[in-house]
Specification:
This protein has nine helices and seven strands; from the N terminus they run αααβαβαββαβαααββ. It is α/β, with parallel strands linked by helices. α2 runs antiparallel to α7, α3 crosses α4 and α7 packs antiparallel against α8.
Amino acid sequence: MQEPRFVQSLFGAIARRYDLANHLLSGGLDFFWRRRVARIVWSWNPERILDLATGSGDVALTLRAHCPQAQIVGADFCVPMLHEARRKGAGPVLAADGLALPFAEAAFDVVTVAFGLRNMASWVGALSEMRRVLKPGGHLLVLDFSVPPPPLRWIYRPYLHRVLPWIAGRLTGQRGAYEYLGASIEKFPSGEAMRRLLIEAGFAEPSAQRLSGGIVSLYTGEKVE
């Protein structure tokens, strides 16, 4: 749970180099993660999708490629990131606070949020708001970083807290943004803890799945009423 103005300024400062940093620092795994998300969403056959915390629009664009039948709306509270999304053709996108979405109840079949829930001021509050805008029978998909189990954890933590901020600082000129990244990942609930948050927010039968050895985790839940 984070201070909104701090997060806005942080992502605004790295917006222009955000995609390059993601691709390099993940070793290209971010492409695989987005395709995995899109294939799951495709299996739900949605008509309307909200990609929350859409950032530079990469998830929205991947969803469009896999779900051409769906209307995809991107929302984010960082305007410089939305400029990047529009530049790449990821519209429609709009500025919106994840805790007070400007959409009617039951407006979407699917809500996705990739690497964004972790940065919101209230995790349960944001999840509850996502549930509000889902139709009954609609699905939520959350993708975010997690700390992998040993033995990968022993390699990953030094990379996350030392190597990654140094490389990212050289790429973006904003080392502090990536020091924040490591700290936020350590605090963010994963696995069973995230499943409990999803249940608290009203989602039924949430699932949790590790990807890439647990570097990221993927969660799904359904609104049953």
